[in-house]
């Protein structure tokens, strides 16, 4: 029955795929005089730091660079001889103001068999050296779901993504770069699966982040949005979709079904992972989230049009999350741009696509700059 759930969700899972990796752009803006290399990133906090070999489309400048780290918390990927990429974009005055410290925005990638933070955010407006903040894009894996998995003995090996990001990457960045290392100057955001991860981390670690944003995020894993739960399951067992190796459908949060003969005997962990279940934890944090409607209509678009099909389902999930925020008394900046008509999202069709997400960044980054006191 578990395999049948994954099979029925295969079309949905494909929407988490290569769509988001299609946007390739120009490396970040740079200062007039560029140093010979980027800052030395010393190993520490359980991370072994090393240089990243040359890759097509991966910028390696003093202001926009990618390093590789090794960790025992998450098994390495095949993208770079077993390690994990972390892409970093520095402000244009980072080297000319050597005593200045900067706020940080962590950006989390979405799910795709080939997700690589070194290229995932290429071409997005405002994600560059002109924004006055440090951007950090750590590897989130193709299907890590920003969680410590319930099962650690699967063919995928160690999958402690929360430990990796919260206990290792964050202090590693603060130790190696001139950050303002406090809650008020640290934000987190992400696309699709990364939007889920950003909200999840902000809820579980409200002492670390003052701002959180989601762009077409999977913000409802409850039984009200079983389609999204099915998509997550498909990314686990869907080796035929390119998510390899295939693992048990219980690997992430235990059984996705209401009842099971194995611990934890129900979908209690899935329900607990649902962002709406912990909306009250976001009190005092600036919450922003964006979603389209896949073109609208009473029924979803055909699965042959995956960018529209998947966003149609995400629209309802984001509405559920908004309802939870309202019930918890948490204010938010919620932009449901529908099909984009007569809005700044005109032309993107309300799809699950980089064209829509680029406009999300155009709207969000200036607001984040204001919250950080940059402008």
Describe the structure.
28% of the residues lie in helices and 14% in strands. It has one domain: Rossmann fold, CATH 3.40.50.1820. Helix 5 links the parallel strand 6 and strand 7 (211-215). With 375 residues, it is of the alpha/beta class. It has a 9-stranded mixed beta sheet with strand order 1-2-3-5-4-6-7-8-9, sandwiched between helices.
The main β sheet shows up as: 9 strands, mixed
The whole-number mean of residue pLDDT values reads 90
Mind telling me the CATH class? Alpha Beta
- Fraction in helix: 25-40%
> Which stretches are low in confidence, meaning pLDDT under 50 for 5 or more residues running?
1-32
- Relevant CATH superfamily: Alpha/Beta hydrolase fold, catalytic domain
Count of DSSP strands: 9
Backbone CA Rg: 19 Å
Tell me the strand order in the biggest sheet.
1-2-3-5-4-6-7-8-9
Please give the CATH architecture: 3-Layer(aba) Sandwich
How much β-strand is present in the residues? 5-15%
Give me the CATH fold name: Rossmann fold
Order of helices and strands: HHEEEEHEHEHEHHEHEH
Helix run count: 9
Shape: globular
The total tally of domains equals 1
- Spatial gap, N to C terminus: 54 Å
């Amino acid at each position: 029955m578990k395999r049948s759930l994954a099979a029925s969700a295969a079309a949905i899972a494909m929407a988490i795929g290569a769509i988001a990796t299609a946007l390739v752009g120009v490396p970040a803006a740079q200062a007039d005089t560029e140093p010979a290399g980027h800052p030395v990133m010393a190993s520490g906090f359980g991370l072994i730091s090393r240089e990243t070999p040359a890759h097509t489309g991966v910028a390696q400048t003093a202001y926009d660079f990618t390093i590789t780290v090794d960790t025992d918390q998450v098994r390495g990927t095949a993208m770079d001889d077993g390690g994990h990429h972390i892409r970093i974009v520095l402000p244009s005055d980072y080297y000319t103001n050597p005593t200045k410290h900067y706020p940080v925005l962590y950006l989390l990638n979405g799910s795709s068999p080939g997700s690589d933070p070194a290229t995932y955010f290429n071409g997005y407006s405002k994600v560059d050296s002109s924004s006055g903040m440090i951007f950090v894009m750590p590897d989130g894996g193709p299907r890590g779901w920003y969680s410590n998995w319930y099962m650690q003995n699967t063919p995928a090996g160690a999958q402690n993504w929360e430990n990796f990001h919260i206990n290792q990457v964050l202090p590693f960045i603060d130790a190696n770069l001139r950050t303002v290392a406090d809650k008020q100057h640290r934000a987190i955001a992400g696309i699709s699966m990364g939007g889920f991860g950003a909200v999840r981390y902000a809820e579980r670690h409200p002492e670390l982040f003052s701002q959180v944003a989601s762009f077409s995020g999977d913000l409802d894993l409850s039984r009200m949005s079983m389609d999204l739960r099915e998509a997550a399951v498909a990314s686990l067992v869907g080796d035929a979709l390119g998510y390899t190796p295939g693992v048990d459908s219980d690997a992430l949060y235990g059984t996705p079904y209401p009842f099971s003969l194995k611990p934890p005997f129900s979908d209690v962990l899935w329900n607990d992972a649902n962002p709406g279940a912990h909306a009250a934890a976001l009190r005092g944090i600036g919450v922003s989230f964006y979603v389209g409607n896949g073109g609208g209509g009473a029924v979803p678009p055909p699965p042959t049009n995956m960018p529209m099909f998947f966003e149609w389902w995400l629209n309802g999930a984001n509405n559920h999350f908004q309802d939870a925020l309202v019930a918890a008394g948490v204010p938010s900046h919620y932009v449901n741009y529908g099909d984009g008509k007569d809005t700044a999202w005109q032309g993107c069709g309300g799809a699950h696509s980089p064209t829509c997400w680029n406009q999300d960044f155009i709207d969000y980054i200036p607001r984040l700059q204001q919250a950080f006191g940059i402008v």
